[in-house]
Amino acid sequence: MSTKLRVALLGLEHPHSNSWQLAFRESAGAEFVGIWSQTPGLAKEKSVQYGCDAWEDRDALIDYSDAVAICSPTAQHRELIEIAARQGKKVLCEKPIAGTLEDCRRIETVVNETGAYYMQGFPKRFDPVNTEIKKIVDSGELGIIFLVRIRHGHPFAAIDSEFRQSWFADLKQACGGALLDEGVHIADFIRWLFGEPEKVSCVVNHMVAGLEVEETATALFRFGNGLIAEITSSWHFLSAENSVEIYGSNGSLVLSGVDLGSRDLTREGYLKYYIRPCRETGESNPSVELKNRSWQISKTIPQFKQDTDVFHQNVARAFVDFAAKGKAPPVTLKDGIRAVEMILSAYRAAESGQTENVVFG
């Protein structure tokens, strides 16, 4: 085996493959051995752009590698993960891990049976501004957190005819629309911050472009302690603000600039928060306290705002660093599956029109 981790890229249909391949090519710990795609001619076309070998024989490329990174359409993830895991390869997979519970269970079974190394691609976990948010939440300074609102999405269904005709809008290949594609990021984020919810209600629509899959969705998750977490995802956010809002009994936190709706419009004060001053004795004067409030502005610039390509490269770089050294993956198989289970529970609620249990396997 090479002293470097020989990494192959399986599937080029997801645009994050552009960021991942560059990270692999520039990594001192990796040898980028080639690319494969199910789309005829795509690997050959990209090989010129990437300066790497295009392989027609998928299985031969997997056999030649030590690790694979999967950026295919969602419906193909399970098959590629199974093949790579059974050959003892380390696996990095783009989100979502799968689009059905059956595929999630089959992936879980094969990874557990083979002991394969698996890392889930959730780039929000690696953005320093989100680490800062988690630190504030974990500190308890916000008091009892009772409401979370997160909006995440992009405008491509509104401005890009190619996107509307791509695999993202094909239910058979994508397994879902904006809620699975973009909402899965939010599902992982709220689970990372607050644990696992118990109930969910959801509404979706297709009203702008009339796509087969949902273009906009809002899901309302309820936690055992009473916390309400509202997540909204859409492919029509031409402009937006306040990507993340967290409200506690002792203060609030707001973050902008971390999705394509707000990235180019928000130019300062990305993360701001208000934490009520501690009062050791006596009762506060409500009118005075309300007048004297002011935001604390963090100096942290979101990586997504600063350099979106690097934001996505961080996933591939972490994979090489952790996998090559035999360290446990920073984002696990369980993380990937749990986020999808949250979204699929939301779909079930949207279909039934009722509040549903969030079903975790």
Compact summary:
The chain has 361 residues and is an alpha/beta fold.
Describe the structure.
The structure is a single chain. The radius of gyration is 21 Å and the shape is globular. The chain folds into 2 domains: 5-116, Rossmann fold, CATH 3.40.50; 125-306 and 341-352, Dihydrodipicolinate Reductase, domain 2 (2-Layer Sandwich). The model has no long low-confidence stretch (mean pLDDT 96). By secondary structure, the protein is α/β, with parallel strands linked by helices. Helix 11 (183-194) packs across helix 15. The strands form 2 sheets. A 9-stranded mixed β-sheet has the order 13-12-11-10-6-9-8-7-14. Strands 2-1-3-4-5 form a 5-stranded parallel β-sheet, with helices on both faces. It has helices spanning 16-26, 42-50, 58-64, 77-86, 101-114, 128-139, 156-159, 161-164, 171-174, 178-181, 183-194, 286-291, 303-306, 308-324, 333-352, and strands at 5-10, 30-36, 67-70, 90-93, 118-120, 145-153, 199-205, 216-222, 228-234, 244-248, 251-255, 271-275, 296-297, 356-357.
